[in-house]
Backbone:
């Protein structure tokens, strides 16, 4: 398969590396190829320059967002920063026409001044926007009506998404939500290739609201006093 990952951040890199390991032809999208390759310093999260990552993954191709989307033969993963995803994806709607887009972005707003802040190890907990009565996944679907959007991955830390066996032997749950059954099957097949055995279909894309809001529970579990799990834990729906 020719699979496209839109984004060069830490989450995107986990998928790029795993897809390449699985033998897929991987195309990666960035805003400006020259600017991305020219970076020599780690970003504010300490993530190494993408050029270094590419050198360790020969065969992975870097393009503009639009060219990367066009290179996919059907499956695209969205790892564009949640606050900018709708605008960036809308600009390449034609290249995403008819394709399945698995969205794992979280619509976090990092700069805000809440009356009652929640302190985390990385600063004040970001707020979600949209939240509660809408979701980023639904916003993307409305902006791209000819693309089949599936929400997934977002309830797990990125390295666990691509290596579920690294936590509890893999006995935990991953979710998918979307309005197109065939697109959800594609996402499910990818998750199985990653090693997931418990994949729970939540139904329509409106359930992306629950997945995105789970980000706060994920932080509460991971960084609660005395837990020190970081992001390395799974959740299991017992039924
Ligand atoms: N397990 C999970 O589901 C999981 C894990 C990690 C992160 N996330 C979420 O997934 C999203 C991506 O996270 P990440 O850590 O991989 O990367 P990130 O650092 O949040 O985002 C990096 C990507 O966003 C693009 N970007 C930044 N500002 C932009 C703008 N103004 N216009 C267009 N594109 C822009 C960057 O483009 P360039 O390539 O040009 O720099 C880069 O490709 C976030 O919403 C994050 O919260 C989810």
Residues:
């Amino acid at each position: 398969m020719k699979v496209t990952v839109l984004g060069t951040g830490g989450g995107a890199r986990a998928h790029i590396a795993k897809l390449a390991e699985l033998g897929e032809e991987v195309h990666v999208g960035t805003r400006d190829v020259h600017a991305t390759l020219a970076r020599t310093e780690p970003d504010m999260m300490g993530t190494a320059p993408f050029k270094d990552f590419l050198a360790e993954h020969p065969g992975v191709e870097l393009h503009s967002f639009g060219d990367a989307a066009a290179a996919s033969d059907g499956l695209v993963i969205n790892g564009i920063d949640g606050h900018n995803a709708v605008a960036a994806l809308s600009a390449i709607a034609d290249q995403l026409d008819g394709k399945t887009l698995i969205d794992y972005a979280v619509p976090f707003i990092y700069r805000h001044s809440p009356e009652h802040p929640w302190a985390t190890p990385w600063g004040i907990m970001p707020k979600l926007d949209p939240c509660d009565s809408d979701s980023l996944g639904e916003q993307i679907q409305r902006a791209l009506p000819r693309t089949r959007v599936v929400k997934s991955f977002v309830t797990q830390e990125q390295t666990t998404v691509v290596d579920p066996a690294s936590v509890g032997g893999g006995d935990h749950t991953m979710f998918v939500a979307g309005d197109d059954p065939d697109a959800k099957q594609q996402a499910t097949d990818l998750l199985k290739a990653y090693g997931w055995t418990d994949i729970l279909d939540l139904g329509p894309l409106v359930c992306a609201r629950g997945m995105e809001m789970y980000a706060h529970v994920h932080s509460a579990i991971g960084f609660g006093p005395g837990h020190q799990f970081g992001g390395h834990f799974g959740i299991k729906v017992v039924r």
Q: What stands out?
A: Residues 2-223 form a domain with the Rossmann fold fold (CATH 3.40.50.720).
